[in-house]
Every structure is written in structure tokens, then in C-alpha cells.
């Protein structure tokens, strides 16, 4: 029996197919524009890719949405962050007041921004622009138990799906997921290790600013978590439930929902990429709908990008999170569309084409 979209395993439904004829038409247009073939490099490929995603020869990105998913982590009991756990809730307030980096980036580009509070130890209370779901004050400490119950996991996935539905309903042509959760680089690194089998020392990084001793402690914590859940990580959804976080699961759900709706998603850095890898492992057809924004300064990010066959658009040594790297890369996508749509063809401009 084919599951219906309302069932808990909605995420098993495949992605919407790309519109290959639109991509082919966009490629033909690129070949006719007043420039040498390939002279605009990856900007040409981006325009063609977006054409396939949007099902039209001339893609557009006037409307985008950023959703920041916030959640706290039980693994913080192991001392894995340079910042106190209270910062998660405090940053939710900062998002709502417009003072965070992602708030500025969204405002400057005219992008709709929302925040989803999935559960913070330091409850910020009701705030304008913040959706309160609050599955629990935090996940469980995954060194000794699964991070999420099955119910929490399903609700977190569904939160990502709901955010995508809101974005599509508002006419968004691109979705960006951001995250906030002190300790979530540990969760992302543990999840990555669980999904691809690399040792913790290759994935653990400084996060919010750990020194070498702190990074070594983080790697040891991840090793304990992997040992605790050994034999239970073969299924990617189960790996995400056991080693992830509320925000990671929500982002994975958003990746899958974007692909099912045919809404391109611009993937941020290390944490969002770990969730994206989980989503692709859960539903491989999701990969067609993901664009990758930047190369994070977190050392494990390169391994994740390699597993996804992804080439990020920019490398600015960013490691803030919040969706900020994706927001910084957004203008490149918009410029790719503008060049593709606005340049004259050789025939229109009366310019002689290359011979041979």
C-alpha cells in the first residue's frame, strides 16, 4: 500500500521530478547569449539548474523564505560548547528583535524570516515572528539514550514540512533553513559519523570556539554516543532520531518536503548539511532539489559535501550558522537568474557569433 501524505512516514514519498525540458531550453538560451560559451562559469549552470527546478526556461528568485529552527541539546551536560545553554533561548529573542546576523541578512534582501522554537531550556516565551512548538526543553543526552522519542522525532520532521508549506503558500521560490542550538555542532558531527562511518576526530570541530582540548573532549563524547547506539544506526531515520536534535530533524523534514513540493532549497553550512545528508539517505530523490551555499570553516563539512557530491558556491571562512552562509550566497543565485534572463542573444543584439 502506498502511504498517504498524512501518515507518519510521509517522508518516504519521492521528490517531484525535475523538469528536464525546461533545463534543456535554458541551456539553449545560454548558448545564444552575447558571451563566449561558459564565460559566466557556474552562474550559467545555476540558471540552468534552477530552470529545471522551476519548470521554466527563465527562472526567478524574487521571493525566498528563511526559517530558523531552534532547539536545545541534552548532550550539553557533557561540556561540549564554549557557550552556556541559555544562549539558545536568548538568541531566539535576538532573532525576534531583528538583532541577529540572519535577521540583518534577511532584512537587507527583502526575505521573509520566521523562527520555530522546538524546545529551549531557557524559554524565551511568546514572541512576534516565533512559532512555539516546544517538543521538550531539550533533547535527551544521546551518550546514554536516543536524543528523541519516536513521537518527538515525527513532530520535528513535521515541523520542517509545515515550514515549507508556509513558504510555498507565501509564494516562495527558494527555501533556506537555519538553525540555533548551543551544542548542535556536536549533534551534527555525531549524526555525520553515524551516517558515513568516519571517526569522531575527523568530524569534531571548534563549533562556537572550543580550544584543542575542548575539541578532543567533544570527539570523545561523540565516540561514547556512537558506542551507545552501535548496531542501531543502519537506518538513516533512526540515526537522526538517536544522534540528531529537534532542529536537525526539522531541517531534514524541510529538505524532504521541499523536494516533494518542487521548491529549491539552498543548504547552509555544517549543521544544515548534516541534516541534508540524513534527508538524502532517508529519501535519495531529495538530492536533486538541493543547492549548496558555502564551505564552512568547520573541519567536518568537507566530508559531508563530498558524500553529497556538492560544490558550494562560496568559501568565506564562515561558521556562524543561523542560515547566514546561505543568505550571503543568495544574491549569487539572483544574479545568475538576472544574467540568464536579461542578457541579449546574439541575434537580438546584432552581434556576430563564434564560427566553428
Automatic annotation (TrEMBL):
One of its GO terms (molecular function) is nicotinate-nucleotide-dimethylbenzimidazole phosphoribosyltransferase activity. Gene3D superfamilies: 1.10.1610.10, 3.40.50.10210. Pfam families: DBI_PRT. Pathway: Nucleoside biosynthesis; alpha-ribazole biosynthesis; alpha-ribazole from 5,6-dimethylbenzimidazole: step 1/2. The active site is at residue 322. Coiled coil: none annotated. Keywords: Cobalamin biosynthesis, Glycosyltransferase, Transferase. InterPro entries: Nict_dMeBzImd_PRibTrfase, Nict_dMeBzImd_PRibTrfase_bact, Nict_dMeBzImd_PRibTrfase_N, Nict_dMeBzImd_PRibTrfase_sf. Its EC number is 2.4.2.21. One of its GO terms (biological process) is cobalamin biosynthetic process. It catalyses: 5,6-dimethylbenzimidazole + nicotinate beta-D-ribonucleotide = alpha-ribazole 5'-phosphate + nicotinate + H(+). Belongs to the CobT family. HAMAP family: CobT. Catalyzes the synthesis of alpha-ribazole-5'-phosphate from nicotinate mononucleotide (NAMN) and 5,6-dimethylbenzimidazole (DMB). This is Nicotinate-nucleotide--dimethylbenzimidazole phosphoribosyltransferase. It comes from Sulfuritortus calidifontis.
